[in-house]
Amino acid sequence: MKVKYLSFFFTVVVSTASFGQLKTVDYADKSQKLSGLAGIPNMPNKNNPGILVLPAWKGIDRHSEQVATELMKMGFYSFVADIYGVDKRPKDAKEAGTQAGYYKSNIKEYQNRISLALAELVKQGANPEEIVVIGYCFGGTGAIEAARANIKVKGAVSFHGGLGRDEKREITPIKAKVLVLHGADDTYVPEKEIKAFQDEMRTAKADWQMNYYANAVHAFTEKEAGNDNSKGAAYNELADKRSWSALKSFLRELF
Hints:
alpha/beta, eight-stranded mixed β-sheet, 10 strands, disordered N terminus
């Protein structure tokens, strides 16, 4: 049996008889209306683990929906967070840059929106003791910030995300396991930022790992980024597959 659900940008067709239901979930941050996307598996994994997905700078999109669906098919409760709000979703790259820049500069607000989405994931059935947060680009930055804030997650995974931190911020112990999946040729994240991040992880006594993917630049999991590395952001099929495999290995270790 196939059922159609009206999604944010297109119609998602899911087979409720085979793996689960993909649906929109409305919630709020005080007066700001938010609307995320939840994946409810028909056959959840043992202990009902959940994965919070933080989308890239343009907000909930086709890619993040596909990720939520794949995780649901794997037996995980999934939830794609709405960081910006239903009336504040970027219409173009310029607006996306402004919106993402605001939350990068106002980290507490970003962390709060992540926490609100995490609560919604739990409401959908995920075990609050068995949660991992993953993110792409801007969302990858958010996954790292969730770990820095010690939001209640077992693991944090960043796909081609920013790693920077204001040097004035205190480094505190990080409890979540951290996995960074990074394009070896990503010019958006300078070597200075990478070194500072790695030093931070050591100081925070984190259990962390970082994978580099050859010939991969920023946004290597995003098919819509094209395949021209000279533009600084481009899809790389091999890096995409290898990073997804690394995620699955990470999840097996945690769960």
